[in-house]
Design brief:
9-stranded mixed beta sheet; alpha/beta; Rossmann fold; about 290 residues; about 30% helix; globular
């Protein structure tokens, strides 16, 4: 079945565009996909469609100011990452749970989408979490190549680009993607602080510390953006949640490359998607398993 496009209203009156991928038969599990920074929900379409053919109901969405949830004119549009985490995500979760109230639920977060899970007021609405390439984005914990480029992004491209355009013109600059100014400024603040999103303060850290939902965190050994050390550091915020890490090396999986985005690409369908389905369902792993520190 083709995806159904739906609109979700947030409590502060913003309209978000989401897509629903419903199986033809009984929904054995429901999965909500939280997108990476600057990545439109359509990027996950092939993977979501495949999951629906396995009996999994899937919902994707675009954060306000991005993808199909962006206004025609992004200049001056006000949206921060806090808006995404505290306003967009709860509204989407409400709609997701209403769509499939009786199915076991998994939150699948890619990069930033995985980082924001601990912000939720009711994380226990999900049975489990699968995060992919989600870590502490402090620039000194970036993968080597990005770590070398970070000063250019944070001290030149971001300030100058936002100053000239009124938003971050990532498409023109070949970096991340177009983003609302406030979201980019907040992300810059996080990436320049060793505690990353923990720098938001005690209230946010307390939210993460209280989460008890089991988390599987996928570490992609050839990730060009986030280092394994950065991924492990993020999960130190989860003091009560059982966390374990799954390591994927492309050569061990018979692939030349996976990278930060590769798990969701159609080229990974044969080797990685069945493995990801097992993680979403909480089945025994085939990857290299590492307990949380």
């Amino acid at each position: 079945m083709p995806a159904e496009t739906v609109q979700i209203s947030t409590r502060d009156g913003h309209a978000l565009v989401a897509r629903v991928y419903a199986p033809a038969g009984v929904v054995q599990r429901a999965v909500l996909i939280g997108a990476a920074m600057g990545v439109p929900q359509r990027f996950y379409e092939a993977f979501a469609t495949w999951l629906s053919h396995q009996g999994v109901g899937v919902m994707t969405f675009d954060w306000r100011g991005t993808g199909e949830s962006a206004p025609r004119r992004l200049r001056g549009f006000k949206a921060s990452i806090t808006d995404w985490a505290a306003k967009d995500l709860p509204a989407v979760v409400d709609a997701f749970c209403a769509r499939w109230p009786d199915a076991p639920k998994t939150y699948l977060g890619h990069s930033l989408g995985g980082q924001l899970f601990g912000w939720l007021d009711q994380p226990e609405r999900f049975e489990r979490v699968l995060s992919v390439a989600s870590g502490n984005g402090y620039w000194r914990l970036n993968a080597p190549q990005v770590r070398m480029q970070a000063p250019l992004l944070w001290w030149v491209l971001a300030p100058v680009g936002i100053g000239l355009a009124g938003y971050f013109p990532g498409k023109k600059l070949g970096a991340v993607g177009d983003l609302p100014a406030a979201a980019m400024w907040q992300w810059r603040k996080w990436c320049l602080h060793p505690d990353y999103l923990g720098s938001e303060g005690a209230a946010v850290r307390a939210r993460y510390a209280s989460v008890q939902v089991p988390i599987t965190a996928v570490v992609l050994e050839d990730d060009e953006l986030v280092s394994p050390a950065g991924i492990r550091k993020l999960y130190q915020l989860y003091e009560k949640a059982p966390v374990h890490f799954e390591h994927l090396h492309p050569h061990q999986m018979g692939m030349k490359r996976i990278g930060h985005f590769g798990l969701f690409k159609a080229s990974s369908a044969e080797r990685l998607w069945p493995l990801a389905l097992g993680w979403l369902q909480g089945e025994p792993t085939q990857g290299k398993r590492e307990p949380a520190p």
